[in-house]
Amino acid sequence: MHTTYIQRLSLLLLLVLLRISNHAQSSIQKLNFDVKNFKKELSQRDNMVSIPTAIDSQHDFRISESDVMDDDFKKNYPEIKAYRLLDDFGNYGSLVINDSKVWITYSIDGQMYAIVPNGSEFELQYGVGEPVPHACSVNETKSVLGYEFNPKEFKNLQSNRIIKYTVNTYRVAPVCTGEYYQAKGNNDSDVSASIVSTIASIQEIYLREVSIKLTALTPVLYKNPNTDPFTPDTNMGADSRPVQAGKVVKANFSLNSYDVGHAFHIHEDGDGWSNGGVARLACVCQNTEYEGSPLKGQGWSGAFASTAWWAWISLSAHEFGHMFSATHTFNGTGGSCTDNISDETAVEIGSGTTLMSYSGSCDDTQNIPDGPENQYFHSINLEQILTYRELEATCASIQNINNEAPVAQAVLCNNDFTIPKSTPFYIEGNGTDLNNDNLTYTWEQINEDGPGHPTQGFIGTQAGNSPTAPNFRCFPPSKEKYRYFPELSTLANGITSDPFQVLSRRAKELQFNLTVRDNNPNGGIINSASLDVHVDGTGPFEIPTASNPSTLDAGESFQLNWLTNGSDGLCDKVSIRLSTDGGLTFPILLAEDVDYSSQGSMITIPTGLYNTSQARFMISCEDFSCTKFFCVSNKNFSINSQCTAQETTLCPIEDYEYDKGDPALDLDITAINGSIVNSFEKKIYPNSPTGVFVLYAENGIDCASFASNAYNHETTTISVNESGTYTFYFKLDGIYGKPVMTIFENNFNPTSPCSTFYTSNLQLTPDNFLSRSTILSAYLEKCKDYVLFLSNLEAPTITTKIDFYTGPGDVILHSDSDANFENTFIAVKQPSGIISAASAEADFTTLGGGTYQIHAVNYKTSGTEPPTNITELDLVGQNFNELFNNDNCLYASAMYSTLIVNSDCSLEVELGTQSDCDPNKGTFTQELIISYDDPPTGNLNVNGEIYSLTGSPQTIVLTDLIADGSNHGITVYFTDATDCEFNNPNFFQAPQNCCPFNLDNIQSTYSYCEGNTLIVSNDNDNIQYEWYSATTLLSSGLTFIPSETGTYRVVAKNMGGCTVEKEFSVEIFPNPQLTIDGPQALCDGEEITVMAITNENQVIWTKDNVELTETGFSLNISEQGLYSATVVNVAECSTKVEFNIEVHASPVAELGDDVIQCEGTTVTLTDVGNGGMTYKWFLNNVLLPDQGGSIGVTQPGVYRIESYSEFNCVGTDEVNVSFLSSPNIDAGSDITVCEGEQAIINASTDGNFKWYLDGQEINESSLSFTAVTGIYVLESSNDIGCTVSDTVVVNILSIPTVDLGEDKVACIGNNVLLEGPEGDYTYNWKLLGSTIETEKDLTVSTGGTYTLEVTNAANCSASDEINIDFVDGPTVDLGSDLETCEGKEIDIIAQTNGTDISWYRDDILISGENTATLKTGIAGDYKIVVKGSSGCESTDEIKLTVNPNPMISIGSDIEACEGNTVSLNFTNTNNYDLEWSSNGIVLGTSEFFSVPSSGTYQLKATNEFGCSSTDELIVTFYPLPSLELDDEYNFCENGSVIISATSNASTFDWYLNGNIVNGINTSSIEVDEQGIIKVEAISDKDCRAEAMATVISRQSPTIDLGLDQTLCPNSSIVLNAGDGAVLWNNGSTESTLEVSSPNPTQPQSETFSVTVTNEFDCSATDEIMISYLPVVVASVSTDLNGLCNGETMTLTASGGTTYSWNDPTATLSSTTGNIVIASPSVTTEYSVVVSDNCPNNSDEATVEVVVFTRGSDVTAGMDTCVVIGRSLDLEATGGVFYLWQDDPTILGSTTTSSISVSPAEETTYYVEIEDFHGCLYQDSVTVCVVEDPLSIFVPVTMISPNGDGKNDALEFEGLESFPDNSLQVFNRWGNLIYEKNGYQTDDNRFNGTESGEPLPEGTYYYVLKFDQYVFKKALTIIRD
Q1: Residues 6+ apart with CB under 8 A from 1208
Q2: CA nearest 1428: which of 1373, 1374, 1369?
């Protein structure tokens, strides 16, 4: 074997593929890593580092030192360095390095990678890994701390939580077990670095999610599992893992030195340790001890040694999440999930996928496919952690950050979103951020099923039927602000295909949370908002299966129906869209504004749509743009079209924003011909290529290739639209063999395959065997081509299939290119949908401002028409949504990039005059008046026509508009600023039609049989006709052939362009119904009957196309053949059904010879014949239960088998089975006795016997003996060898255990409870030999000896007895009842000789009171219980009454202004003794009291019980406010004055001339009339002072600048302001101002204003507008680019008011006026002088009117001949449109350049040709008819291929009449050098070359065959 190696090196890294077992899900690559050189490179790369992502792929990160290690840790381990990794795209990671090892964890495009040590080597880990078990203990802490997150308050929390702009840093105290130490390096440096890497990786997640940083203290390392302080937690008496972690942390770290402690552990199966991680809930910063250690240290992360590193990080991050109060979010069951579900936050369906879920740890059916990209928290966990961070975890070090929180908007346009049940929906939110951070979004369901977990495990249908269960899984954060529920890809596979994306099948409230992350690497901030989706009980909204077509044609109309199922009230209007990729995207709008309740609409497939077999409909409710519900076809259908455009994908899909003209608008994007696929396959055939095989060499590093014909292969090309790691999973069913895939970069060269080798799933082993992986992972760059080399190690004809793949983006499977198609990119203006630009290079630097969608387009540029060939410029100006309705043959990518071009502008349009309909042309004109401000350079584009800018307002006339009464839209924009646009789709209405012809010969209705042809025609052939279905053009020409029932429309147009339309209907009678019922096959020797099911009376039968005599509805068949049945209905429409009948061979059954066996044995009968698939068995002709090909029998008799083939043909066989007699045997009945009794076995048999006990033979020779508990088997055999056995079961039952305990002594008056044992027993209590009770327990109050006898269910009994004695108790006396006042305590004293005292109030024990005196002030019944030395109790009781205090109130505190009087009073209805006082001085004893000054005053009242109460209040006197006001104020005429009062008051009332001024309460007031003003100042205590003043009005000055003026260029004017202080708006203070014209090029105006002020400071202002007439600049525009001979052109001059034309050829309609009509016969130049009313102000402009001439290639072709009865193709040239005069001998369309004709006599054909200028020309071609084919055929004997254009190729005159021909050319040795079928039917000609190389001159031979003729001629090739 020859092997070629290519060494793959990089500066530091060398990747090695590690063989992966067939069940592996993650990808691991060996990695050679030179740590010493790496450190050196770090110092030389300017803080940049390249990290590998796969073979030969690296990613650049900025690197900065991390603060994850505290200072002591750094001092203790100076060789360990920790770094953060960041780039400009939001990717991040951590890097830890010591002297010999490196640990790198990083994320790229959401994909997690890890580079970690494995012994002395390194591994690169990525892909999907095995789940890590969890076992989280989270409930105990709640009872310890009392902290609990309430999910019911979730929405309040998220809306009310105060966002902290800080990063909180927590100190981590890490410890490790001996197992971890030995697994992670077995030395201090490596183990410590491993712990640092773990904490650093967790920190990167927490820093972005919740702004939490972690600082590791120096870890405590235990090196030996046998001596470390940790004990496997499943051992008897061992502490739980969190408690052990907490105790070890406590022992090694002081309490205040850390904020959270954590133990790290590695375990193995069977080592006594529980799997996974475990941690206390909400314990960070909590010093409270629990079971001997602080809560904050009780965290534990444990995993198997084989766990992938990123999965280890996920587990540890999960456990830290618990410690920060996060609870589980999964709702799944099975595995670890059953017992660990949260009662309150189970919001994720199934296993869940987020960090606090149990992804991969539930039952397999509950596990959601997951990956390392799910390193994020659910929104409910985010709120838990952030709330806990701010309220409880307050021990952190806090750092302020310069980062604003993003804003989340979940409700954009509809806050009451209601959908039908079982209906997909779409929701969209938004987020903004002042820091312009890289925002990402998640939409997550937050429904929780309430207390407990009643819906645990609900997925699929169960979740859909539940009113509370979660329905939808979570997806990682992305840039998409919207989400489909379910995903469109899920719907494409079936609405119920994903049990974790489940639509609600009932009325339900779905709650969703939109979380916006700013992903700030220095401290991320999140914000969230909620949206409720109401699921109604009506629905579903769906497309019924019956409305899903199987095939539609482009241009075909179709009635699309849907079902609302009672949900009409939920939607008003719907749109209908079309997908061509199986439902992944729906880019094609078919209809909009359709009534939802109509439940159906006629839609038309666009005429220009390309072929597809993956079409689907989407119907979407469009009432709101941000919330929609919709339905999608449940299966694909096909669209047939002449257009073969390739599916094209834009790559990459990104958003761009640049300023207008920015060079970056030359976008770096690619158009890939191919489609996005979820899976793909390639069939390997025996004739597939061989010769080379490529794989990894033995070392797993190099490429190996060897020559081999043993394995065939195929290649295909792919790309991806997002860079990252992709993992391909092969289909592994038996029919898919052993797949092999090797990836090459850019191309695959079989002669040098290793030159582009990238990776493979196949490796050569050192012993020259092949090692194959069942998956293949590779880092793929976006938009780059990769060639897949696909092979198989199985049979040569087999399919290699990629079943599915995972990765950050989509895989694009390339398709073959077509030379007739090219790719380009288009910019689609939004929201108009107009294509503004097209560029094959994606150069959009000339785009105007606005928002655009950038699509990739594959369009037809050459080849046979139709479809029409177009250029990329033809796309510009079209509406993107109507591309496929405009006969364009193209494919536009559904996915697009958004491009924003920044610019400014203003544009408005008004309607002008509309003309009447022109009866000659059927057209009209419409004026538009266009106004604009500050226009850009360039021109105006009005509905695609270009107009020069002449000044605003500008009038433009639209001409040649069709007068049909329809509405017209208008789109106007600047060519240099396309974002400045006016768009109105219904701007004006056209007048009614006025054409001079009609369509009366076309009937209103037609009918004919299905399958026949109807020709509709009008008799006026001077008219052009177009035939439509709805808006889809079906054909052109005088005649029309409809293909289906429906309504059609004909549009007729004369040469002048006048147009008439008419609708007509066509009804196609259905053919009769006919189906064939009956078998399609029979077995040899059988006869079958088939039935014709029809509504007709007679059937015509045939066999092998020969009519049979039978005419009935049934036909008996015994022979194989092709049969048919035909029926005809009364409309003479017929239906024929053909069917094949096959005859199948019957199987052979074989059971063998008769069988003889012993009685009691089982005989197995097996069919050893062939051909059987299913079987029936019979015993003595009685059918037995269902069996297979074998049966076990125990009864004698004749057994028969019927063996059935796959076609139900039967073969039979039978066999006789006999059984010999066996010995008689009886082991006796089963024996049950109580313990202590004997169990005797008595057996009998007439044979030789053996005994077995519990399966073991025993030495027992007797048939009767005493037995023990067990199963005895007696085996007996006779002399003929038959053996039988019998079984007896012996059960010796245990007796109950009865123990009444020791004898008891009780107090007299008390009772003693005696308790019997628990169990299924009966009880018998006895005293002095007599039964006194039969219950389980007995209560006794008298002494004596009591006996209990207990009997179990087996009637086995046992008994016990006990002696009871009763004795006296102590004395006690509380005395008489007592009283006290409310609030006053009293002593209750007991007289007793007891020693043990307890007090009770109202029969409730008073805790802590155990002496003879009780102090209390609470009313109640008190009891004392005392015990004496005998242990007996005595009690006494006393009642304590608490009398009420008086109820008094003298009111609230009193405030008054100085000078007011305040009195206090109390109404003494209860005759209390009263006493008023202040500061301890008694002031009075009556009910009333006058207050002399501010102070505190008390009233004391005493009642009849001597109980007193006191109340007091404060009286305060406030001073009046200060107030000052001037005596007089002045204001100007028609003006006002501000009057301000000086006061310390806060509020004021103003009065003018005695009337209050409402609404003014400030210290200032504006007054505009004369009079007396008064103000009242009001203090904040409502104390008032007042003042008054006089207000006087003064006159203003007079000023007049006169009327507005207009200035010609080079003129001026003087303005006079008059007397006073003058100020002009230009700053001048002179009384006069001279204004001069600036001589503008466009009309301008300027406003001047002046203000004059008099001695009273009163002012007046006037202004004047000066308009400047422009310097005339002449310009001329035309309405046409050129003229066809005989046409006219409108010339429009602008720039002035007077126009004088120079007409050198006297071909202008006028020489004055700005609009003239030119009608030259040759190209002519005209000039015009433009002036206005100003002197010396004129300009001249010229314009050339081009007259087009007929091209030399405009022709109908040369006259020719055709053989009678044959057809001939005629080809007109030189035009872009063609119209052949209708002739019955023309076959097919008359509107193409090429037509096929079949005349019976000489005929002249006329054609009208329109060239690319739009000029029309007529020409003709005459075709003669000959009878002798050879009369027009001329053989050829010589060609001269020398490139002179003459006789360069073999061309036969007249061969065009014989397209069905063949040509072979041979050299003189008889070797075939050229062969062609259909010679001269295309451009392929024999030109004297072979394989592109010239043949030598000489003689050759050709054989030409057509019809019955064969021409064999010599052919000479000469070149001179």
Answers
A1: 1083
A2: 1369
How long, in residues, is the chain? 1920
User: Which residues are CB-contacts of 898 (< 8 A; sequence separation ≥ 6)?
Assistant: 655, 656, 851, 852, 853, 854
pTM of the model: 0.51
Q: Which of 696, 691, 728, 727 is nearest to 712 (CA)?
A: 691
Q: Which amino acid is at 1100?
A: I
Contact criterion met (CB below 8 Å) for 798 and 684: yes
Strand partners, 1549: 1576
- The tens digit of pLDDT for each residue in 862-898 reads 888 888 888 888 888 788 877 876 678 888 888 899 9
C-alpha closest to that of 1738 among 1725, 1754, 1723, 1727? 1727
Average pLDDT of the residues in 1278-1288: 85
Helix/strand/coil percentages in the chain, nearest 5: 10, 45, 45
Taking Cα atoms as reference points, which of 235, 214, 219, 213 lies closest to residue 184? 219
Spatial CB neighbours of 1182, under 8 Å, sequence gap ≥ 6: none
Determine how β-strand 220-221 pairs with β-strand 166-176.
Answer: parallel
Buried b (16+ CB within 10 A) or exposed e, 938-964: ebbbbeeeebebbebebebbbeebbbb
Cα 1882 to chain centroid, rounded: 50
Query: Is residue 3 over pLDDT 50?
Result: no
491-515 pLDDT, tens digit per residue, is 988 888 889 999 999 999 999 999 9
The CA distance from 416 to 422, in Å, is 18
Best CA proximity match to 514, nearest among 439, 622, 418: 439
State whether residue 1066 is helix, strand or coil. Answer: strand
Question: Of 35-44, 593-602, 1161-1170, 1868-1877, where does the model show the most confidence?
Answer: 593-602
pLDDT digits (tens, 9 = 90+) for 1577-1596: 988 888 888 899 988 888 88
Residue type, 21: S
Asked which of 224-228, 293-297, 1013-1017, 1451-1455 is least confident by mean pLDDT, the reply is 1013-1017
Q: Are 165 and 403 in contact (CB under 8 A)?
A: yes
Find how far residue 203's CA is from the centre of its chain.
28
- pLDDT, one tens digit per residue, over 444-503 is 999 888 777 788 999 988 898 888 999 999 999 988 899 999 999 889 888 888 899 999
What does the pLDDT look like over 1042-1056, one tens digit per residue? Answer: 888 888 999 888 877
The helix-helix angle for 188-210 and 309-323 (nearest 10°) equals 60
CA separation for the pair 693, 772 (Å, rounded): 14
Peptide bond before 486: cis, by omega within 30 degrees of 0?
A: yes
Mean pLDDT of the chain: 85
| Token pair in block for residue 1197 | 């008799």
Tell me how far apart the alpha carbons of residues 606 and 615 are, in angstroms, rounded to a whole number: 13
Q: Which residues pair with 1586 in a beta bridge?
A: 1576
CA–CA gap between residue 880 and residue 837 (Å, rounded): 12
Q: Which two tokens stand for residue 1035?
A: 């054909």
On the 0-12 / 13-18 / 19+ scale of CB atoms within 10 A, 886 is middle
Closest-CA residue to 379 (of 403, 400, 401, 410): 410
Q: Taken in order 586, 588, 593, 594, is the CA torsion positive or negative?
A: negative
Confirm if 496 and 460 have CB atoms less than 8 A apart.
Answer: yes
Other C-beta atoms within 10 Å of 1319: how many? 11
The answer to whether 809 touches 724, Cβ cutoff 8 Å, is: yes
Dist. CA 227–CA 312, nearest whole Å: 25
For residue 250, give every residue at least 6 positions away whose Cβ sits within 8 Å of its Cβ, in sequence order, or none.
292, 293, 294, 297
For 462, phi then psi, to 5°, come to -60, -45
